[in-house]
Amino acid sequence: MATLLTIFIAAALTCALGDESPNGVHLMAMQDLQKAVRVMWSLPETSLATAPSSTCQWGLHESQLSHSSQADAYTYTAGGFNGTLYDCVLNTSTYAPATTVYYSVGSATTRSDTFHYVTAPRVGGDVHAIHWADMGIQNPVATSEHVQAGAANDVQHANYTLIINAGDTSYADDYNLNVLDLPNAWVLDKYWQEVQGSAAFAPMALAPGNHEDQYEFAAHLNRTKMPAPIGSSGPLSRFYHSFDYGCVHFVSFSTEHDVSKGSEQWKFVQQDLQKASQNRDAVPWIVVYTHHPFYCSTSTEPGRCGSQMDHFLEAYEDMFHQYGVDVFTSGHNHCYERSYPVYKRQPVKTFHQPNATVYVVNGAAGDIEGTQNAWTADVAWRAYHNEEFYTGYSRMDATKTNLTWTYYDAKNSKVTDVWSLTK
Question: What value does the mean pLDDT take over residues 180-185?
Fold first, then answer.
């Protein structure tokens, strides 16, 4: 008992003195990733009242972080969070595209390690991105450990410079038991700590999932910040965004909110895709990502792959076809499958200028609810599906004329699906 009391007092004194190390450092995508990137972190055990003033420092050499900016400190209380969050922007507008930038964060007395990332490629340049969805913290049911390790290796050692996260970040609400309303902010702290190996080294762009809607999306809105579209002031503007990155235009919106024809989000997507379709010479590919799938065939989720699928396609499939969306990727179902290029459920069995969209479900990153492998038989538009229980994620490599998608079984360290679109 005396030993436990000593540890508790020591921990309390450490936090009171503001010596807690930055936790869960992660980069967030901004409107123009050649010019700036957002970095966020937390001090889970340090109250805002005692939180130290902190900065971001960055530069072109690990030993010479010559630029500095003040971090904003703030907090929120949902899920029993009692700590401090930090938000800081690195201004890289004077750097060339695809430049390696080194940075660290923290206070005058306690700073993070020095991390590095690569600024966005030139307009039209090659893109190397990884994609996951439905990633929880490491757990005994379907652990995310293998995906986290693979993603960290890809980002730190294999030239992947962007992360796309299609939602259900951490599964904190599964550790809350709802009716008991147990504190679960610790799950978010642990999640961002676990993905720091990738998310501190490449900016992440993400969409909210259904597991983020607890406490009115408080964790999503406070721990992540995607750029609101320029000029947008609608009530949902924090939930949709778009940006160019090299040769790819990315568009995202929230399937946890109103997506019906004529809605705020529908109008944003329509206007954005119209503009992007007119910029094909410079940025030839269009990739849309949300949490809910628009084409899927898992038999364990008949509603998702039935009436919900019909609802989404009724609102967006014609729009995607009109403006030439190349790839739509999602999660929600804890599996991997992808379609042929498809329109109105009719597959186009060519990947060279198909004039139809490939739909990917990529939700097997690993979480406490497990993975799925039960399927509807004989689906004409389905090109591939995983028939085993395992966790994995995807890699996307794009040039102006070729977009290659690879699905990686992280648990068994093997590639199980590869396909390419060509122009």
Answer: 82
Q: What pLDDT, on the 0 to 100 scale, is given for residue 2? A: 39
How remote is the C-alpha of 197 from its chain's centroid? 14
- Cα separation, 277 vs 283, whole angstroms: 9
Burial of residue 112, with CB atoms counted within 10 A of its CB: 0-12 exposed, 13-18 middle, 19 or more buried: buried
The residues with which 100 forms a beta bridge, in sequence order, are 118
Torsional class of 332: left (φ above 0), alpha (ψ -120 to 50), beta (otherwise): left
Question: Cα–Cα–Cα angle for 405, 395, 375, nearest 5°?
Answer: 65
Per residue in 105-153, pLDDT (tens digit) is 999 999 999 999 999 999 999 999 999 999 999 999 989 999 999 999 9
Instruction: Give the dihedral of Cα atoms 252, 192, 98, 165; nearest 10 deg.
Output: -20
**Contact partners, residue 191, CB within 8 Å, separation at least 6:** 24, 135, 136, 137, 169, 170, 172
pLDDT one-digit tens code per residue, 53-76: 999 999 999 999 999 999 999 999
DSSP code of residue 411: T
The answer for residues whose C-beta is within 8 angstroms of residue 357's C-beta and 6 or more apart is 320, 321, 325, 326, 327, 328, 341, 342, 343
Helix, strand, coil percentages for the chain (3-state, nearest 5): 25, 30, 45
Q: Phi and psi at residue 362, in whole multiples of 5°?
A: -135, 60
* Residue of 377, 125, 79 lying closest to 244 (CA atoms): 125
pLDDT band at 179 (very low <50, low <70, confident <90, very high): low
